[in-house]
Amino acid sequence: MTAPLLEARGLEKRFERRGFGFRRRPVYALNGVDLTVLPGETLGVVGESGSGKSTLGRVVLRLIDADAGQVRFQGIDLLSLPPGDLRPLRRRMQMVFQDPYGSLDPRMSVGEAVAEGLDIHRLARGAARRDRVIGLLEEVGLEAAIAARYPHQLSGGQRQRVGIARALAVDPALVVCDEPVSALDVSVQAQVLNLLLRLQEARGLGYLFIAHDLAVVRQLAHRIAVMYFGRVVELGSTDAIIHNPRHPYTQALLSAVPRPDPVRRTGRIVLQGEPPRPTILPRGCPFASRCFHPAKDVRCVEELPVLRPVGDALAACHYAETPATTPGSEPGS
Amino acid sequence: MSREPLLRVRRLTIRFPATRNGPEAIPVSGVDLEIHRGETLALVGESGSGKSLTGLSLLGLVPHPGQVDAVSQLFLDEQDINTLKPEQLRAIRGRRIGMVFQDPATSLTPVLTVGSQLREAITAHRAMKKTDARARAESLLSEVGMPDPTAGYEAYPHELSGGLRQRAMIAIALAGEPDLLIADEPTSALDVTVQAQILETIDRLRAERGMAVLLITHDLGIVAGRADRVAVMYAGQIVELRRTADLFRQPSHPYTRALLHAIPRLDRAAELVTIPGIVPSPADWRMGCRFQPRCAEALPRCATETPPVVPLGNGEWSRCWLAQEKSR
Q1: Helix, strand, or coil (residue B166)
Q2: What is the ipTM metric for this complex?
Q3: Whole-model pTM?
Q4: Beta-carbon separation of A187 and B265 below 8 A
Q5: How far does Cα A25 stand from its chain's mean position?
Q6: What is the torsional sign of CA B210, B214, B159, A279?
Q7: In angstroms, what CA-CA distances link A81 with A39, A69, A70, A267?
Q8: I need a surface site. Which of A81, A172, A200, A300 has the fewest CB within 10 A?
Q9: Closest in A216, A256, A273 to B195, CB measured
């Protein structure tokens, strides 16, 4: 087995808040996350708002500090590294954000924005720097002339391509993509997803691909981690997650994904109730309050299920072996 | 659906006059559509297609300096919305046509409770005692699936989750018992599991009340199981209007086909087919077909000749030269 590019163990992150009364309660963003990304692999991370998926992306790059846990990047323990030793590693791990408009400096031309990483890491100067920028722009499907433009003169798709070129400038091994296409129109979304696929093949990149949309994630991911309330509740190959989900939450999520298919599906799972509040850490399974599994019982409320092998995937459900849904039935209430 | 349509839109054209920064823009040009009672019509398009402006025009809410051109007819039953005075429009807004927007966080006032905003919507069209209005408000909240209507009534918008806020918005839109509900991206700001709940709720209310729904969305996926008919918009025009099943089974317009192939799907892993280029802005619309520069199947005439509206039977049609060739 290849050595992992990225390895996270037991990641925890809590955000303390200023305020009074219940507003003072901390927000539990990550409650123990383990995962690995292999070189050249895409690990998709799927979750809804509040699942901790964006915090996860930031913690593994050490853009914010974790409260507990370990992150190893190419075998090096990131979280205990002094900040000065972190910088050379930063070159090898980059991030692509959801909103390239918010992450590009409006006063910086596209050329300068793409070259910024080259300058910081002193990778190229003068003519070589210019050639690198043009090469990068071409690699992401932009014309060289765009280097002189400013972010507000670009379309959303072009801005995201610039964001990707910026990340690639320093020649990373790992790119964390946080909702890279969710702000884009469908026709442009497909262009960017295909670009990411092509770049991975050409450069052997590892992606930690974070998104709320399972249909988008399945386009790129080799494996998928499903997050709920700061934990991975199911992890497996993309095939296993899409075709044979074991965790009731994964089943509900799959069933909720809108499908461009006019046949009304039977047995669509519509979850009852609201997602849990992130300020209260439940003792048992965080999904228990919305769970429709027929075997659900007091154990689910009392005892936290851990991620364990179920079939060909890992699932954190006490009753993952028992089928939760039978086709044609309408679970819920 | 043999009865007269509830809403009949003819030649809807919206103009933004020329300014120092640019020439006149016509982001909606010649939209025709009908909605029947109890029907869901989906208006699907990417950003810049004119779908939201179309919805706003039905409420007389086209933002300044945009204007609905005088050639446009917007008949709600026998009344042409486009000829109404502002105070007549106010009587229609909320009362006959309700609206739900994408982001409930910005369309609710943060400083008032959900209850007082809902009560305002109820008493705007019907004089009522405060206690009666409150009872009505709570029953509306329960109808839209608010788990605890009393608590929901007393809550401020920020105290509710996104899904519950959107339920509150729907309750407000329903307060005047409208005949038509315009839902503009009602679930785009919500998580998918919550999205499913909200769409089911809107559909249940439509069925229970015999209301018509105009569902405006960029997402063909949410349209599939829910709309009766679909109008696909591109660059200010409806390019294809179909019954939902027909649209998905046999899309006629190349834009619709391309869009369907560009959507990431759970049930297939094939590489996505992309549409080259971007949606043109109104200043770049040209003669002939507006999709022609991005169309993989364009004929020579598409660049210069305005495509015809080709009937496909059952009131369905496609605005395309190719459809014309095929129908011969």
Answers
A1: helix
A2: 0.76
A3: 0.85
A4: no
A5: 26
A6: positive
A7: 22, 14, 11, 50
A8: A81
A9: A256
Paired with B99 in beta bridges are: B182
Q: Write out chain A residues lying below 8 Å of B279, CB-based.
A: 185, 187
How far is Cα B130 from Cα B140, in angstroms, rounded to an integer? 15
The distance of A252 to chain B (nearest Cα, Å) reads 7
Q: What is the pLDDT of residues A2-58, one digit of tens each?
A: 899 999 999 999 998 776 665 677 889 999 999 999 999 999 999 988 899 999 999
User: Exposed (0-12), middle (13-18) or buried (19+): which is A105, by Cβ within 10 Å?
Assistant: exposed
Burial of B305: CB neighbours in 10 Å, binned 0-12, 13-18, 19+: middle
pLDDT tens digits, one per residue of A258-292: 887 766 555 577 787 777 777 888 899 999 989 99
H or E element that contains B316: strand B316-319
The one-letter amino acid at A270: V
Q: What percent of chain A has pLDDT over 70?
A: 93
Cα separations (Å) of A140 from A27, B95, B223, B246?
A: 38, 51, 33, 37
Best residue of A22, A155, A187, A241 to probe chain B, by most B CBs closer than 10 Å: A187
Q: Where are the beta strands (DSSP E) in A171-230?
A: 174-178, 206-211, 223-228
- Residue whose pair of structure tokens reads 């003819």 in the numeric block: B10
Rounded to whole angstroms, how far apart are CA atoms B227 and B40? 5
What is the dihedral angle through the alpha carbons of B241, B306, B312, B182, rounded to the nearest 10 degrees? 10
Letter for the amino acid at A17?
R
Query: If you search the block for the tokens 């981690």, which residue do you land on?
Result: A225
Q: How far apart are CA A255 and CA A130, in angstroms?
A: 49
Please give the pLDDT value at position B104: 67
Residue of B166, B263, B271 best to disrupt the A interface, most CBs of A under 10 A = B263
Q: How far is B190 from B188, CA to CA, in rounded Å?
A: 6
Q: Please give the Cα distance from B231 to B248 (Å, whole number).
A: 12
The domain limits of chain B are 7-96+178-327
Quick: pLDDT tens for B52-65.
999 999 999 999 89
pLDDT at A331: 39
Q: Over range B246-259, report the average pLDDT.
A: 95
What CA–CA distances, in Å, run from B198 to A14, A198, A333, B43, B166? 31, 37, 16, 18, 8
With CB atoms and an 8 Å threshold, state whether A259 touches B265: yes
What span, in angstroms and rounded, lies between the C-alpha atoms of B228 and B220? 13
- Which chain B positions have a beta carbon within 8 Å of A180's beta carbon? none
**A328 falls in which pLDDT band (50, 70, 90)?**
very low
Q: Which residues of A touch B (CB under 8 A)?
A: 48-49, 155, 157, 185-191, 193-194, 197, 212-216, 218-219, 238, 242, 252-265, 268, 270-271, 273-275
Nearest Cα neighbor of B174 from B203, B148, B140, B127 is B140
The C-alpha atoms of residue B34 and residue B135 are separated, in whole angstroms, by 35
* C-alpha span between A282 and A301 (Å, rounded): 8
In this complex, the residue of B193, B223, B248 whose CB is nearest that of residue A271 is B193
Best A257, A279, A291, A333 residue to mutate vs chain B (most B CBs within 10 Å): A257
**Among residues A312, A167, A297, which one has the least CA distance to residue A239?**
A312
Longest Cα–Cα distance of chain A, Å, equals 68
Find out if CATH 3.40.50.300 is the number for domain B7-96+178-327.
yes
Which is nearest to A187 in space by CA: B39, B273, B288? B273
